[in-house]
Every structure is written in C-alpha cells, then in structure tokens.
Amino acid sequence: MGAVVFDNQWIFGYGLRYQFLSIQQRQASYGGESYKGTGKQRGEYLAATSAQEKFTVVVEIKKPQTDIFAQHDYRSGVPGFSAEFVAAISQAQVNSRTWDVEGSQRPADRELLEGKRIFTITPLSILVIGSTKQLVNHTRRQSFELFRRCLHNPDILTFDELYERAKYIVESGDQKSTPTATDEDVPSISDDDIPF
First-to-last CA distance in the chain? Predict the structure, then answer.
C-alpha cells in the first residue's frame, strides 16, 4: 500500500478535505433583505460540491494585497489581525448562515437546487484572501496557521496557496503516471465547471 501512495502522490496533493466545486451562481443573493428592500447580502459565488449528492458552499474572494495582519502586534509575540481580515471572515460566516436559514429555504431556490440534487446543510464557506508573503516571521506564521486550523468556518486559503494548488493539478494532469478513470467512473467535466 505504501508503494502505491508513494507512486501516486497526487492523491494527497489536493488535500484530503478537497472537494471539486462547481459554481452555481456568481454574486448570489443569500438573503437578509428587509421588507423595504434594504440589507440584501450578496457573495462572490454560491458553489456546490461535485458528487452524486451535492452540497452548497459559499465562496468569498478578497484581494491578494489584503493585509492579514494589523500594523502593530496585539501583545509581545502575538500579532494582531487586520480589521479587513477579521471583517472578511465575519462576512463569510454571516453569508453562510444567512444562506442556510433564509436563502436556501426560499421555495423557488430550494426546488431549483434540489432538482439538481444540491442540498444546503450548514454550508461550508471558503475565504480566499491575502498572501503567505505576509508571514514574515515565526510569530506571524504560527498565529496565522493556528488561527485558521482552529477556525471552524470559513476555510481560509491565500492566493499563492490557491495558485500552487492549481499549478499542482495542471502539472499532475500532464504526467503519464497519473491514473486515468473510465467514463463510467468519473462524470465528464467541462471548462465551465472550473470554479476560478
């Protein structure tokens, strides 16, 4: 078994929690609108996992230049996170919750999605923000990684990590050692299904 894994390192290259996502709607309306038509919550993408049974995922994308850290440390050895970083996390959490309890319960949306076998059950959110170039010392690296590992929702991914993931997938697809599946094993995927 060990030799099989070593010869097929792509199995772990995507990350064990990785699920292929298909975009269902850009600038999706998650809900939150008052009877006066104000307060509507929109996000970057409403996506869904790809499998026989699919589940919605809320995707928020900020900028690679977004500061993850504040200019000054919170305490000695404890870097502070920037207000924009914290607000982006809050936005992803609120949008995910609003979609769960409101948007996904709208009869027309629910019928449309469930007709595609897409369901909403406490949806995951993904936040793409900043760059690991900001992790310039041990305390920043430690603080960032501990924070995102212990954060339940959203999953935080930096732009350079996203780039490396995409690069790995493309390069692995070019290698002859990558296993191929028969048409019965994997549904066909078009360029339109690629989320970014």
Answer: 34
Cβ-based neighbour number of residue 61 at 10 Å: 17
Q: Is residue 34 part of a domain?
A: yes
For residue 141, what are the CA distances in angstroms to 14, 110, 137? 22, 41, 6
pTM: 0.77
* 156 in any annotated domain: yes
Q: Residue 94 carries which side chain, given as an amino acid letter?
A: V
| Distance (Å, whole) CA 78 – CA 147 | 12
Residue 10 parent element (H or E) = helix 10-13
Run means of pLDDT, 10 residues per run, the chain, 196 residues: 48 57 84 67 86 93 96 93 98 94 90 94 94 96 96 94 84 58 44 46
Q: Which of 68, 82, 63 is nearest to 159 (CA)?
A: 63
* Domain extent for 155: 18-168
**189 falls within a domain:** no
Residue 11 belongs to a domain: no
* DSSP conformation letters of 131-189: -GGG--SHHHHHHHHHHHHH--SSEEE-HHHHHHHHHHHHHHHHSTTS----TTTS---
- Structural domain count of the chain: 1
